[in-house]
Automatic annotation (TrEMBL):
<keyword id="KW-0805">Transcription regulation</keyword>
<dbReference type="InterPro" id="IPR009057">
    <property type="entry name" value="Homeodomain-like_sf"/>
</dbReference>
<feature type="region of interest" description="Disordered">
    <location>
        <begin position="1"/>
        <end position="23"/>
    </location>
</feature>
<keyword id="KW-0804">Transcription</keyword>
<dbReference type="Pfam" id="PF00440">
    <property type="entry name" value="TetR_N"/>
</dbReference>
<dbReference type="Pfam" id="PF21597">
    <property type="entry name" value="TetR_C_43"/>
</dbReference>
<feature type="compositionally biased region" description="Basic and acidic residues">
    <location>
        <begin position="14"/>
        <end position="23"/>
    </location>
</feature>
<dbReference type="InterPro" id="IPR001647">
    <property type="entry name" value="HTH_TetR"/>
</dbReference>
<protein>
    <submittedName>
        <fullName>TetR/AcrR family transcriptional regulator</fullName>
    </submittedName>
</protein>
<feature type="DNA-binding region" description="H-T-H motif">
    <location>
        <begin position="46"/>
        <end position="65"/>
    </location>
</feature>
<feature type="domain" description="HTH tetR-type">
    <location>
        <begin position="24"/>
        <end position="83"/>
    </location>
</feature>
<keyword id="KW-0238">DNA-binding</keyword>
<dbReference type="InterPro" id="IPR049445">
    <property type="entry name" value="TetR_SbtR-like_C"/>
</dbReference>
<dbReference type="InterPro" id="IPR036271">
    <property type="entry name" value="Tet_transcr_reg_TetR-rel_C_sf"/>
</dbReference>
<dbReference type="InterPro" id="IPR050109">
    <property type="entry name" value="HTH-type_TetR-like_transc_reg"/>
</dbReference>
Amino acid sequence: MAGPISMETGTARPPERPMRADARRNHERLVGVARTAFAEHGTDASLEDIARRAGLGIGTLYRHFPNRHALMNAVFQDALCSLLDHSRELAGAEAPCRALVDWLGAIVTHAGEYRGLARALMSASQDRTSALTQCHLPLREAGAGLLRRAQESGSVRADVSIDDLLQLTNAIALAAEQSPDDPELAERLLRLTLRGLK
């Protein structure tokens, strides 16, 4: 039986085979080690070191993750799910503008856990071929819903776009990353953002 039809080429694609047990273990080991390495050393941590710490060769890492962004995407899936769940919790909030800013604050907090993540997300928003786009697009959609609700309530200006807000949020996370001696910076910048939205 042929696989699904590709809309781009009109040809049948082979169905995706499930990972063998050893390949799945290697995949999970690499993601776990990468999560720790990114938290300790930032998202530019050595891929060779990640493979070595996982007890695998660099070729195995590249078979699972063809580039750094693909590995980052895998590492951040749990956080992405948490941010998406949070957006659904805030969708019915009584103060839609505050809900939007709270959600943006959660993104800043997440980005702050991994040095270099904010910069990578900023670049991924402009590069549809990046594996990190798989993180960016669901966040964009979730944020657009919160923004639309805030705009419909009249508490946020109509000319504000979700793309601008996400770039601003990543810029706040990047600024906070560059100023570790000022732990209140992100919160102050988010408060300024709230004022600018109204």
